[in-house]
Amino acid sequence: MTNSENTNLSGIYIHVPFCQSRCIYCDFYSTVYGEDFKDRKNEVDSQVDTIYVGGGTPSCLHTGRIEKMMNHLIQNFSLADNPEITLEANPDDVTPFFVKQLVDIGINRVSLGVQTFDDERLRFIRRRHSSRQAVKAVHSLVENG
């Protein structure tokens, strides 16, 4: 696709500032997860072909909230056919059931936060997961869509 052909495409980034705990290396705005969640409406004059839900830790949200957010986007924006919809996730949040729910909601890509497979370093940087959980999360994502 040339640049002139894709000038009517846009992307949306949604920042979910909640985490279960703070990692020592993180420079992104985040706070410990709470129930504060506000609906917002933005206007985009073009078709949206990419939605990226980052954070913080979007995977700490209940999937009902993720679904509500996706429904809001679908109702308020013009989405291209087969948009890429990405959600950032922590390995310890990823279970086969969680992955199935994401697929049902329409999430078709996951950015998995695996900084290292070294358990000692994971503890040092205050990650909540172990290397074993990270490997298990990768398998859950592959096996469940």
Main attributes of the structure:
single chain, 145 residues, alpha/beta, 4-stranded parallel sheet, two-stranded parallel sheet, 4 helices, globular
Are there runs of 5+ residues with pLDDT below 50, and where? 35-41
Q: What string, H for helix and E for strand, traces the elements in order?
A: EEEEHEHEHH
What is the number of helices?
4
* Lateral arrangement of strands in the main beta sheet: 1-4-5-6
The beta-strand count equals 6
Distance between the terminal alpha carbons, to the nearest Å? 27 Å
Largest sheet: 4 strands, parallel
Please report which band the strand proportion falls in: under 5%, 5-15%, 15-25%, 25-35%, 35-45% or over 45%: 15-25%
Give the integer mean of the pLDDT values: 82
Binned, the helix content reads 25-40%
**Structural class designation:** alpha/beta
The radius of gyration computed from the alpha-carbon positions, rounded to a whole number of angstroms, is: 16 Å
Rough outline:
globular
Describe the structure.
By secondary structure, this protein is α/β, with parallel strands linked by helices. About 30% of the residues lie in helices and about 25% in strands. The protein is built from four helices and six strands, in the order ββββαβαβαα. The strands form two sheets. A four-stranded parallel β-sheet has the order 1-4-5-6. Strands 2-3 form a two-stranded parallel ribbon. Strand 5 (about 80-90), helix 2 and strand 6 form a beta-alpha-beta unit. The longest helix is centred in the middle third of the chain and has 14 residues, at about 65-75.
